[in-house]
Design brief:
Elongation Factor Tu (Ef-tu), domain 3; 2 domains; about 20% helix; 11 strands; Rossmann fold; binds flavin-adenine dinucleotide
Length: about 230
């Protein structure tokens, strides 16, 4: 059953620096807030002089539904007035949220193998899915391949590598050192790709390139789900 979106306020309880400009923000989670791994929320901030990108953003929920004590989102704090405000939000501040939204979700009833291709920060829904599969002890084959342009941008590596087992595989690719995610790398990691469901998320250019690649390898359109993170 999908969970209908609700509007609520939530308090910032923790902020964690992952790289020079990437942070995880932990918010209080109400016991009534349920979601499916892969869904996202809309966040609205009070910004005194917002730039023309406005006062709201969408963020995938990077925490798993099984992590009951918080909702976590991970983002890069770059230039916009939204990000600057979020980055300097004092612990205890309340923000407005609405969600959950989205159909880019893990269907745990579907035992078909999953192949997840993430570009940089597009890894956030994959973290939610992998932690969920681990916590629920669901042995659906799941291969995550994530590409970062350089080593300094890598996030979640230690944690997600530790979730690897017979069913779950995690492969980090650093474009500047290993080249891009290509046909050879996918074939090496995924034996039965024509029977797999593909998830692709990240900046628009990455999503477009990976959709094209998957299709060129014979993956049917109905077996590809994509989530484009605009703005990067
Ligand atoms: C379903 C969905 C899920 C998403 N999930 C996530 C997620 O989990 N994590 C995440 O980080 N994002 C996510 N996004 C994208 C997110 O909503 C923002 O669009 C994105 O983070 C960019 O934020 P920003 O516009 O504040 O730009 P910034 O992050 O500040 O910057 C992005 C780029 O825009 C440039 N830029 C920004 N502001 C200005 C300015 N005023 N003038 C000139 N250049 C500027 C920067 O130099 C940079 O190149 C998601 C989007 C969708 C639709």
């Amino acid at each position: 059953m999908p969970n209908p979106p609700q509007s609520f306020t939530s308090r910032l309880i923790k902020k964690e620096e992952l790289t020079r400009d990437t942070y995880s923000f932990y918010f209080e989670r109400a016991s009534t807030f349920e979601f499916i791994p892969g869904q996202y929320i809309k966040m609205v901030l009070n910004i005194e002089n917002p730039d023309d990108r406005g006062t709201s953003r969408f963020f995938s929920i990077a925490s798993s539904p099984t992590e009951k004590e918080h909702l976590m989102i991970t983002t890069r704090i770059l230039k916009s007035s939204f990000k600057k405000t979020l980055g300097s939000l004092p612990i205890g501040s309340e923000v407005q949220m609405r969600g959950p939204h989205g159909t880019f979700v893990l269907d745990e009833q579907d035992t078909k193998g999953k192949v997840y291709l993430a570009g940089g920060i597009g890894i956030t829904p994959a973290r939610s899915m992998l932690v969920y599969l681990r916590d629920k002890k669901i042995a659906i084959p799941f291969t995550l391949m994530v590409s970062f342009s350089n080593r300094n941008e890598i996030i979640f590596q230690e944690e997600l590598n530790a979730l690897s087992d017979d069913a779950r595989k995690v492969a980090y690719v650093v474009t500047s050192e290993d080249g891009r995610i290509d046909e050879e790398k996918i074939s090496k990691n995924v034996p039965d790709l024509l029977d797999s469901l593909f998830y692709i998320s990240g900046p628009g250019g990455f999503v477009e390139a990976m959709e094209k690649l998957a299709k060129s390898m014979g993956v049917r359109e109905e077996n590809i789900k994509s989530e484009d993170f605009p703005g990067y």
